[in-house]
Amino acid sequence: MALDQSSSEFLQQLADQGAPAFHTLTAPAAREFFAGLREIIGEGPDVYGCEDLGIPSGATTLTLRTLVPTENPEGIIVYLHGGGWVVGALDDYDTLGRFIATESNCAVVLVDYRLAPEYPFPAATDDAWAALQWVASNRQRIVGKQSEYDDLPIIVAGDSAGGNLAAVCARKARDAGGPEIAQQVLIYPVTQPDLSTPGYQAPENQGLLGQQDMAWFWDCYVPNADQRQDPDASPLLADNLDHLPPAVVITAEHDVLSDEGAAYAKRLQAAGVPVHFRQFDGQIHGFFTILNALPASETARGFVVEHMRKAVTNTTSVA
Questions:
Q1: pLDDT tens column, 48-85
Q2: Mean of the per-residue pLDDT values of the chain
Q3: Domain range for residue 123?
Q4: How much is the pTM?
Q5: Residue 112's CATH number
Q6: How far apart are CA 312 and CA 155, in angstroms?
Q7: How many CB atoms lie within 10 A of CB 33?
Q8: pLDDT over 80 (residue 211)
Q9: Number of domains in the chain
Q10: Residues designated as active site
């Protein structure tokens, strides 16, 4: 299927503005360009509570932003932002976090993990894992409630590089015997380092994120190519995906990551993991977070939130 009209118009708008490709920029310049998309995305709804917290991650302090939608949230979503492990900040994802929080009635915790190339692999995974563990041990602190909120179900979610980190965290939690994860939500996740797949090479997939851009992101994040075979960098390469949390996986048809997202969903299904998978036809990489410019973003978010609500409800009813 061809690109839908909104995607074509969005890419043309960027081209008319002379928007650069990520791989032509320095990391600071790429972050500035990415932050410029906030004007297109707009602001999110008001929430009951918003707070930035500092937590330890190894020898560093990590910032989390908590977005609590109501006085009585029903779950907590640890959300790991995209951006090739190089770009992305709390303010870039605040709008999306607010929408997910209000629509799911779950507190959303945005994680400001360390970025490459200043902090290469495994800094981002270490921070994501530290954040997940902290959230699991501080549910009362996040929602401002007492003991009845000790067992709020936790969902780990992310898009693109954040989807990669979410998948890694879900496996780490399984291997460590906790924390218990009600669901993993993987939005066009990066799952492997091979840039020669058909999805990477298709001319129609070279939109907001192209093959050369992903090569640059990988070079920034894991400059040692041998390390890219580590399942903590490439979750598709893990030997064992058994007994992982139920998954929601979405991909975009015209995305260089489309093949590996679908491949990871199939690997999970083959391992007996319940998976809700959907490819969004006519869409480009990044469509999920480009809230106002691309109408399919709302449709995809509705799909994700519906399954989040089911996961939270099922976990609560079992408990």
A1: 999 999 999 988 999 999 999 999 999 999 999 999 99
A2: 95
A3: 5-318
A4: 0.97
A5: 3.40.50.1820
A6: 8
A7: 16
A8: yes
A9: 1
A10: 160, 255, 285
